[in-house]
## 1
Amino acid sequence: MLLSQCARSQPISSTPVSGPIQFQTYKSEGGLLSLDLEAKAQSVQLGDRTANLLAYNGTVPGPLLEAKPGDKVQIRFTNQLDQPTNIHHHGLHIPPTGSGDNVFLEISPGKSHTYEYQIPDTHPAGTFWYHPHKHGLVAEQLFGGLAGLFIVRGELDEIPEVKAAKEEFLVLKDFALDSNGNISDTGHMAAMTGRAGGLLTASGQVNPAMTISKGGLLRLRLLNASPSRFFRLSLEDHPLHLIATDGGAISSPAELSEVVLAPGERAEVLVQGSQKPGEYRLLNQPFNPAQGGMMGGMMGGNQSSGRSETVATLTYEGSTEEIPLPTQLIAIEPLPEPQTTRQFTLNHGMGGGGMMMGGGMVFMINDKAYDPSRIDTQVMLNTVEDWEITNTGSMAHPFHVHTNKFQIISQNGQPVPYPAWKDVVSVSPGETVCIRMAFRDYTGKTVYHCHVLDHEDRGMMGTLEIQQA
């Protein structure tokens, strides 16, 4: 996570404030979260634009799902797209096989599949999400609109100060639309650097309204659901108090002036209603991801508009007895020393025929592009490993591991400022990041990959097999 002072001198792109954020929501009842979910091409309103997108249950983002540790989940999914798809339950610690978080499934157009699994009793509370993961089509389908939040309620939500906070969910997503509202072809180079669009949305709205009481707390749950864009977020005149990252709560709040989110990353922050009544903008600042930062990275180019943009607007409404920040959250136990250390090198090169011949850029891990018939890494259940991830290329790569979360041990040999549970870490050009991971509960095949999803689709993914000891 990046700590620095926010620049306020940039010209700011702003639009009129729209209405409050709303979601179609499904919550578990009696220990069961059960719903029908459909992926389909759909006309959707984005601000003042009518957009022809891909949607879950007709909404962008898709329905907000809420469950608790120990709950059973049944998602009866139907694919009404004109291409195959599937669903990745990003960040959830559930089986990677069968009808769980099985990214090797291919659900053909017109076909259905029921995802069915149980959330472990010990699962942490947190902000997770779901999105397509059919290799070769991931960036296209996510860019088209397919993404939704999956919230696990638990111990963090019961901390009195957190429980007293008002809650907003911000799914950050960019779109590229042509004059007819169709998804634009972002061009050949976008397939290399990662596709990005100029229409910035928060939970399907352009500059939505949020409110806070004088003396109150606002809990912002932030998800970067873009296929390649990085976000550098700050709130005018308000520090952001980090309380959770990808994998759940941290030990105690950390005050930040800004939060940088790579694709796929999540953060939860508390905002104190301590300023004068008025309007305060949540801003996305210009950012060169190649310069790094613990949650930042990625080549410049189309990843930054070069100006500050308004993501949402916060307004004071009423007052309440002052709610303090929590002093303690959920203790994070450091993982034990690893049994094994592995090295992973991230880079890219030219495919067969060269760029001009249609081969295009190939993205690789350890000099190999993804091959679904190959097992790249075999690990043993109930072991702990360190993975040293080195980026020898010219673009940053947010590295994501399925099934098991990890702790970031060091960045270029320097320890991280505070312990946190993560499932995405951005690795900037020339950088080495060491992560520590325990392989728990589940065996089977899963994957690790770059979460700039055009890079994943073009080969920057490996198959991980977790074996019974």
Note: Helices lie at 138-143, 160-164, 190-193, 453-457.
## 2
Amino acid sequence: MSKHQELLQEFRLFAETAANATALMTHIAQRLHDEFSRYNWVGFYLVDKADPGMLVVGPYVGSFSPNARIPINKGLCGAAATTKKTVVVNDVARDPRYLSGSEIVKANLVVPILAKNELLAELDIESYFANTFTKAEQTFAEDVAQLVGRYLEKKR
């Protein structure tokens, strides 16, 4: 079984007994950060219930403080939010949409988290190494995001 498969199985089991969405997201962020040395910042952005035009930082693990609030139409997070599609940028210096959380970030992967096709959150993974995110990494992150989306759908 691959590391991706092992972690997905672990996350599925954890989701069955997680106290709430925050606990699930915290667990996922910590484990991804721990298991993948090139995942230097892993976190979630949540659609602000009071202001649906904004994403607010949720549970995260990493060596820098992220942007606390991001307009839903700005940056790579905004691109993933508005298109409801994964955004992979393996060299953020070449993408003018990137809103820097840290000068040392080189690659970024953002996956929208949907429940009944409604954007509720995003999984954001940042790396200090260019070309971190392969197609397999993208597929894995999308599987994790789907798992969180299903959890959120059940809890609504």
Note: The chain has one domain: 3-155.
## 3
Amino acid sequence: MVKKAISIIIPLIIGILISYWIFNRNENKAVNTSGDVIIERIKAVKKLVVTEGQFSEVYNYKEAQKYFYNLISFEKKALLLVKGKVLVSYDLEAIEYEVNKKTKVITLTKVPEPETTIEPSIKYYDLQESTFNSFSPEDYNKLNNLAIKKLKEEISKSNLYDRAEESLERTLGELQWVGKELGWKVIIKSKT
């Protein structure tokens, strides 16, 4: 009877100790984080955003290191979801114009080229790496740059710039209308 009780109590005590160790081993970890936000520059800008686009792309990356005449291969793979908010704007400070107060004529002589701002968001999915071919911080930077480059290529193929031109023409038409309502004439000599 004593042997039966000991054979039950000893595994029970061992189980309690193992459970205590498993659930309390994370209590000894101390995580310290710190960060400082530094404002580098604040600048007043006068920009007219005429078009905003949302782009999404799934980017698949695969790299293999091969050894012994390609008999042994160590691969790493990544699946990225790249989203980008793209803004096409015109710098209003770069517009060149002439004002004739006597004749009440404003002449826009030069409208600058459009500026493109991309706000990318990159999320990594399905990272697979081998022991001998793993992702380094440089690899992540390279992947980010490749994904943004691919996004820029897709933006250039899209009709975003055509829509921006149309939107600018509408805005300049509204400027002419407002000028006419105020007794001024707005002449647009050149869009770029």
Note: The chain has three helices and six strands.
## 4
Amino acid sequence: MSEPARRIPPKAMPYWLQEPRPAKLSVRTPEQDAKIANRVETLLTKIKDRTAIVGVIGLGYVGLPFSVEQAKVGFRVVGIEQNPERAGRVNAGDNYIEDVVDSELRDLVAKGKIKAVTDFTTVPEMDILVIAVPTPLTINLTPDLQYVENVTHELAKYIRPGQLISLESTTYPGTTNEVMLPILEKSGLKVEQDFFLAHSPERVDPGNKRFNTKNTNKVVGGVGPNSQAVAVAFYSQAIDKIVPVSSASAAEMVKVYENTFRAVNIALVNEMLLLCDRMGLSVWEVLDAAFTKPFGIMPFYPGPGVGGHCIPLDPHYLEWKAREFNFNTHFIALAGEINRKMPEFVRTKAARELNRVGKAVSRSKILALGVSYKRDVGDWRESPAMDVIKLLLADGAHVLYHDPHVPKFRGHGLSMECSPLSDEVLAECDLVIVLTDHSAIDFANVAAKSKCVLDTRNACKTIENRDNITLL
């Protein structure tokens, strides 16, 4: 007698072979349907006449600009910020985010349109709750959802019928449905009936003078039709164009794809840089010529690595989630590997330049010019400059930094204060490494007063006398 065929657990099957899960059937009475319809209509009315109270959880690079835009169109906004210093600064009208206009925040606070609190006890007073908290990675490049989970547990203690909860933090597809929803329903309330749940990924680009919260298209995906209706209505009040998608998971996938697209293309030009260095070619010359083609190409440039709150992190969220479906995302893994190697290459190139003038790294004074992850912002999260500085310090170099947007920083195992960009400092350094191409820096003077410049951003492109300038 043959043994019965062994059933493969669904998680181990390829996703195309898995059987669809049966839908949960629920039978509601006409009275219950009427109550749900009334709940939706009541919230829609509050949204459209802007009497809804908006709660924004996390007043950082996403949350504070979003709060300001909502308050500008008439909503009363309560920020839940568990950092007491930040909450105090908001309530004093003291701005700490570069993309927020100081005078706008002061005026909105003075008019009572924005205030900050440090706990969740005011949640029952709110009609809409927007979550904008960090979603970092662990040291092993796996998702760390502790902030999202902690906030959701707190909300579950206080939510009431008739509220919309929207997650804006970038995460893997399925987080809203698989992580948040079960926690929220422990409150005894049911989604699509008692409360509404959506995902609308943030698309903040710090320092971008053209696109901001208001004029950047907003993707919105609800967990059901009621959630979708109220979420689209809410975001439409302060944002120019809404892009509805079929589900919260689709909205989550949109954001991780956007940043994966950038990570893969940056890795491509970084790998081109490494190859051109071996071949004795200038990758900058090659790229400038390639980008003159009027079709079929999009400009991306190499650098010392990738940084910020999106590109170094988000692709790994998708990479991790894909394994659940027995799927390996080869491009994502390779792109991450290449981009993470770039600080090591900067270290190698710095040593090469110092050797050329007879200096050992361990006996050199090096100025890191710029430590934020991109031009003209003060955000140094995940900045490759931090890795470069740590590598040079490990080699015994004396390293100082200058960044007009970062007066000091503590993190990544470092604690440093900004040095002045004086002629004396430039002259006494053996090497200046341009890691961020801030527009406020006079690179012509840097080149004129420095012994040797290693330019990882092509910031010195227009300087004619290039005898002491080396490109990455």
Note: The CA atoms of residues 93 and 106 lie 4 Å apart.
